[in-house]
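Query structure, 492 tokens:
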């Protein structure tokens, strides 16, 4: 029988739609699941999110739904955690339960679950242990790596001097300086700032950062099966990753030819030795795929986050020249014309407070990286089933009004007492916390202090005449400052 009546056809379509909607809600509804805004069919709550800065919407929604609430993006329900107390409770007090990494489509497409940042299960644990131990072996937090940072900071100063105080965009050479630190650990080598190989690496990382922070990336993650049919962000990201794979393969293939198990020169050498040992034991963790993903993770995390923080630091010093002068006065008093050392930090409370406030205000990883529950968990009175995507919103921690007097302002006094002594603030959590916290935290702290003090020891940073300094972040995956020009005036 053929149905031609328009009313009947419309009724059937409506019934099917309601049935699908009812089934979807039944399937995804749990007793005492965290509350949240009512999702629309198919799209969920994506229509209420800022496509450029979704973390801002997530923070705002907590004012209505509380510090633990749910959101649906496409077909996936997720739980958002906001505020220092709640985020710390999850990542520290319930570290095991919230230690998994959810599968985010675009990240999975470019890493395939390998490496350290987006890996899970035993492979993640093995790669994280290897990374932490190897970084320590090659000097992270020690005199060895400090000397490399000091040397690189000198190269950075010479590069800045070459512009003779004329306006310049600092992004490329700051990226290059920070990249050379991780390159020294990976390859025992440094590049000239104009080296085509380094420039190509930085270009790939910057392009990936822009792509992953784009509205199209959000749409792809929400509707991967539909969006994969169209040319766009996912295909561009995969293409860039394939180029990165080619570079890493060429590098470690060359190193394999001259590998000496008794003289391990860098992280890649150590990985290749582990790979040889593993073959004898028939294990499968130290694979070429894990090596490529691990190198990418270290480049992307170490270079992007630290260089972005340094770029915020110079922009903020130009915006607040009085703070810049106070930092320089403390540098002159404590360091003088000597090389800045990590040991100087404890004698420089104001500079230490300013660096902490740069990290807090800069808010470089605002949404954190998404976690997932490893098992069914009851958290703060709510039931969260195993495998649920969880976003511990770092912007809500760093801007928590209960811990920071002026959360939306750049205010170094957040980390100073009435006598000018440095004071820790427990809500300072730019590296996240728990089992997924940043593996390179100690390295980043040393880099930030030495690079920052070295630059302010040698230059006063000013904006070009007539320029407007805008603190609005760019629309990228990390919370980066928008492109700006600076003038570095040599100090006499």
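Result returned for the query:
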């Amino acid at each position: 029988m053929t149905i031609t009546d328009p009313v009947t056809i419309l009724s059937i379509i409506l019934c099917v739609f309601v049935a699908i909607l009812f089934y979807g809600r039944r399937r995804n509804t749990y007793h005492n699941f965290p509350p949240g805004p009512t999702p629309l069919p198919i799209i969920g709550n994506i229509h209420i999110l800022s496509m450029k800065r979704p973390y801002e919407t997530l923070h705002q929604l907590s004012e209505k739904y509380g510090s633990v609430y749910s959101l649906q993006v496409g077909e996936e329900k997720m739980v958002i955690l906001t505020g220092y107390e709640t985020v710390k409770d999850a990542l520290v007090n319930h570290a095991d339960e919230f230690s998994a990494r959810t599968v985010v489509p675009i990240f999975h497409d470019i890493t395939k679950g390998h490496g350290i940042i987006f890996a899970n299960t035993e492979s993640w644990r093995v790669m994280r242990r290897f990374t932490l131990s190897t970084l320590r072996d090659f000097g992270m937090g020690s005199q060895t790596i400090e000397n490399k940072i000091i040397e690189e900071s000198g190269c950075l100063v010479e590069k800045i001097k070459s512009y003779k105080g004329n306006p310049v965009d600092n992004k490329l050479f700051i990226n290059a300086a920070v990249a050379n630190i991780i390159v020294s650990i990976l390859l025992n080598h440094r590049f000239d700032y104009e080296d085509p190989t380094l420039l190509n690496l930085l270009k790939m990382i910057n392009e990936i950062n822009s792509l992953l922070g784009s509205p199209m990336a959000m749409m792809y993650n929400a509707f991967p099966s539909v969006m994969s049919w169209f040319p766009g962000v996912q295909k561009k990201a995969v293409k860039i990753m394939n180029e990165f794979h080619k570079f890493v393969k060429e590098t470690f293939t060359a190193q394999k030819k001259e590998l000496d198990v008794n003289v391990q020169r860098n992280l890649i050498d150590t990985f290749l030795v582990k790979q040889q040992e593993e073959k004898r034991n028939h294990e499968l963790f130290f694979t070429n795929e894990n090596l490529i993903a691990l190198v990418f993770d270290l480049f992307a995390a170490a270079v992007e986050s630290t260089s972005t923080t340094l770029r915020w630091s110079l922009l903020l010093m130009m915006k607040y020249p009085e703070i810049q002068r106070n930092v320089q006065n403390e540098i002159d008093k404590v360091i003088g014309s000597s090389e800045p050392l990590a040991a100087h930090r404890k004698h420089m409370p104001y500079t230490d407070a300013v660096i902490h406030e740069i990290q807090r205000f800069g808010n470089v990883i605002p949404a954190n990286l998404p976690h997932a529950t490893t098992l069914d968990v009851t958290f703060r009175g709510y039931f969260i089933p195993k495998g649920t995507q969880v976003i511990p919103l770092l912007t809500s921690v760093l801007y928590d009004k209960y811990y920071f007097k002026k959360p939306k302002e750049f205010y170094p006094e957040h980390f100073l007492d009435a006598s000018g002594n440095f004071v820790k603030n427990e809500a300072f959590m730019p590296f996240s916390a728990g089992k997924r916290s940043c593996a390179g935290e100690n390295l980043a702290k040393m880099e930030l202090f030495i690079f920052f003090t070295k630059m302010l020891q040698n230059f006063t940073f000013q904006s070009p005449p007539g320029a407007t300094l805008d603190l609005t972040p760019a629309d990228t995956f990390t919370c980066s400052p928008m492109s700006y020009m600076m003038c570095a005036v040599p100090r006499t």
